[in-house]
Design brief:
Mean pLDDT: 94
Radius of gyration: 18 Å
Number of strands: 10
Strand order of the largest sheet: 6-7-8-3-9-10
Helix content: 25-40%
Order of helices and strands: EEEHEEHEHHHEHEHEEHH
Strand content: 25-35%
Distance between the termini: 35 Å
Bound molecules: adenosine-5'-diphosphate, magnesium ion
Number of helices: 9
Largest sheet: 6 strands, mixed
Shape: globular
Length: 244
Amino acid sequence: MSPPAVRFAGVSKRYGTAEVLADIDLALTAARTTAIVGESGSGKSTLLKLINGLVQADTGVVEVLGTAIETADLIDLRRRIGYAVQGSALFPHLDLRANVTLLARLVGWPEARIRERFEHLLELMELDPELAGRYPYELSGGQQQRASLCRAMMLEPPLLLLDEPFSAVDPITRAGIHAHFQRLAEAEPVTVVLVTHDLREAMTLASELVILRNGRIIQAGACDAVVAAPADAWIERLFQSQLG
Ligand code: ADP
Ligand code: MG
């Protein structure tokens, strides 16, 4: 078994007096997709931000790709972590190509490598090369979302953090994007941490499930195992209400 891509040990986080995360112990298996689910305000986004160092833990240790985040070179580490958030968050004044390739240019990839990776990602996401020169407002919501995934994956990161990336699109478009995400996850050996409040989405895209409630992990494990044996009545109700 390979070492975990991300490990939390005894992690807690407060904002002022509010305890946002407490007693977080978690190991995320490399090359798998783990979904973090929970109600709004349960600490999902904060958990993700602890992984890329946007937020620092008050107690405990966060290890990412083999390095404790406290001692890591964050700039270097973030180059190895793709990050995509709700809505596509593409730069409106850049066309699709410029949006996707921006980071590769910043880190000085040679032109040929940039072009090759860009074309490969468009193909994976089934984005027509003719769209490369279009600005975000000239793309559909689904195309924007796929472009945003391409941008997050441009530098071939071993780790991809997704914060409710598909929640702003309509259900039909979302189903399409799910299929594209799955193509990507199969084609690349990437560890994905997917934050969502949609349990159905979690079950479709992830193999591992972590359920957060009021800043605590109340259950974690393989999706099938968790659904087969909810740890308490609250989780059981969650499954009933969302998976029916
Ligand atoms: P989720 O993503 O599950 O909705 P968050 O991690 O965004 O939850 O937030 C958890 C709690 O922490 C919420 O109560 C939120 O208001 C609070 N919070 C998040 N970020 C900050 C911040 N920078 N300063 C103060 N409180 C924050
Ligand atoms: Mg959030």
